Amino acid sequence: xxxxxxxxxxxxxxxxxxxxxxxxxxxxxxxxxxxxxxxxxxxxxxxxxxxxxxxxxxxxxxxxxxxxxxxxxxxxxxxxxxxxxxxxxxxxxxxxxxxxxxxxxxxxxxxxxxxxxxxxxxxxxxxxxxxxxxxxxxxxxxxxxxxxxxxxxxxxxxxx
Length: 160
Fold this sequence. Notes:
Elements: H1 7-16, H2 49-56, H3 71-80, H4 84-87, H5 105-111, E1 117-119, H6 127-130, E2 137-139, H7 148-159
């Protein structure tokens, strides 16, 4: 598992080093989704038509692993390239330590000229819950969960 450590950060930074205009990067995460409930993995097609269409034109992984089956710590691992035991967040609402914030992918991308934004549906991914504040725009629910459509609408408005 150590060989895949930080692969998102490594890939993004390698793409930046190639000397061409930087590519757009979109990271979409789905929390608590079973693959057998998605058409692109053989589930009923009517449940996820938009995700199925995206998968038909992109890269679909047949196996995915998480550093931890808890939303906050798992996302902190994605954005820092560290395991939960290294970044220190072992439960939702436990923010990453200040000593690791320099590893935040959004900050590293900003330094390289990227505009960064996060559009989330869960308060578990708000900056106060994660300790990560590197996104220029961080659009998250004020209360409990918000519909995914609202986050997508906000992201598309920002993009335009």
